[in-house]
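Course assignment 3, question 2. Fill in each field.
Student: A.L.
Task: Predict the tertiary structure for the chain below.
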Amino acid sequence: MSVTGVVKSYNPHKGWGFIECNGQDVFVNRKDTGGFSLSTGNQVQFTVTSTEKGAAAVNVRVLAPPEEASYFGEIKSFNPSKGFGFISCEAFPGQDVFVLRTDLPGGMAPQGGHCRFKVKMEPKGPMAADVQLLGAAGNQVQQMKSMGMLGWGKGGGKGWGMPPMPPWGFSPMMMLGKGFGKSKGKGLSKVDPAKKVWIGQLAEGVDWRALQEHMDKAGKTRWVEVFKGKGKGTAAAAYSTEEDAAKAVATLNGSVLGGAVLVVDAWAKKAA
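Answer field:
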């Protein structure tokens, strides 16, 4: 039997809170909200179930028009060069939510990152607005802002401005300087440069196995190497085709691994 109540508190980062219903506080978990991200004061409809810790809400639905509700989703893909991507959300089954860079904090969307957003219903489908990155993705954006790596300015139109060297816009050679255009491993040296990608800002402790699993999201890798010494925090991956390498740059640049936002760029051979 469904009942109605009002959200008393909810933490979007932790994904839980309480609904007040008939003078009783009912626990609610993100996994039972059907893709909604609750806000204090929301009127909701739900079913009450009993648990060892007390009453809990399931099958929660926000009683508001789609444009007024907030939603929880995961960044499915984002193309930094084109400035758009897609969010997957349980509240919109069978379709992805389109998102523009101008609606993202800092203009970035790390693949796999969790987010809270509103929607504008367009003729082609839902479009995200007022996006807030949650958890590790949100923390990373805040750190990058504090370091001056992200920001708003006058240079990019519609209020968007970038620092001279944003993490998604620089060449590997600009960061590494001399001596890093060639592979440090024999496995990479035998691969066509067009089939290789450079990886930067790798979190400490991430080994080649974890990186390979992550990079395989774009296509099966032939070789993955995490560099040591002066190349610490950088790596490379080789694919069987140029298409897979290009897909890795398009879909995994800005993705999150080990709590850090990766830079994935085309392989740059050292200039002669």
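Instructor remarks: The mean pLDDT is 81. The helical segments are 135-146, 172-176, 186-189, 208-215, 242-252.
Grade: pending
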